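Human: If only I could read backbone structure tokens as easily as an amino acid sequence. Take your time, and here it is.
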Amino acid sequence: MTFHSLQQKRRSIYNLGNQLTQTPEEIFNIVNGAVREAPSAFNSQSVRAVTLTGAAHEKLWDLVLAQLKTVAKDPESFQKTQNKIDHSFKSGFGTVLLFTDTAVVKNLEERFPFYADNFYDWSEQALGIASYAIWVTLAEAGIGASNQHYNPLIDQALQAEFNFPANWHLRAEMPFGSIQAPADTKEYMADDQRFRLIQ
């Protein structure tokens, strides 16, 4: 399978199940391998990844729901949100939490003051590359996933529950699992609106 075909296979899968043939340890290794080989500015390796499965995965989405309930406008809108989470993200096999280690970023800012204004942006690029690498690698293994962003709403509750280092700044949550239904057809903008060749 070519990389381009893997890119086409990687889609946002919202209808997830927990019927995977891989073990939690095998998925842990998939995630770690993808992040380990992902590039980062100055080889800073500022991305941190935590793979949650089983009770820890379910606890995460319970925390998300609890925090969303505190900001819900009304019971009806919260019910829609709960249905989405229960039947899409929580119903999966696990979730990858993606963090930026802010201590790494701060250290680079201090060591290389000429580039200090860029290191946060570069850490976001590293996070995006690592996230995409995980997503494509999961797709290669036949595992569906999507990229979610309930941070910063859940940051304090997550820290209290799992006791992550204080300098780990949550950037995304990637629920994954068996593909219970395929993604919708992807629509593309016209190429001439996005791409230019200048010679």
Observations:
- The beta strands are 16-17, 47-53, 94-101, 144-145, 168-179.
- The longest strand covers residues 168-179.
